[in-house]
Amino acid sequence: MIASVQLTDRELLREAVGDTWNKGYRRCLAHLAVLLPLIPPAILHQRLSLVGIYGSAVWAAWEAAMDLQIANRFWEPAYSVSNVLDTLQAMLEAPPSASTLALLAPSPAGSDQTSPPK
Question: Do 80 and 65 touch, CB atoms closer than 8 A?
Fold first, then answer.
């Protein structure tokens, strides 16, 4: 349910959990910045959001498949859950492409896109 609300009504979720969610997110982002110093902060910020979206969707699909309690060719292999974790990790660790880095450069208007949004 939380995943659904997060995807469909982020403001409602923010109102419900207040600053608690944001504090945890900021701590996680700061920790990842130490672990991944070659990923620009703005890119890491966006990737963490993408990991949340992807993770919510993929775990909802896994949970739905498990609830059916029947064999599922996609989730049945022993490596499936480990492979999902690998993809989540790869989303954060992959070096940004040259085109992404070029687009990250400060805009002509002078706004700095290299820092994560507040």
Answer: no
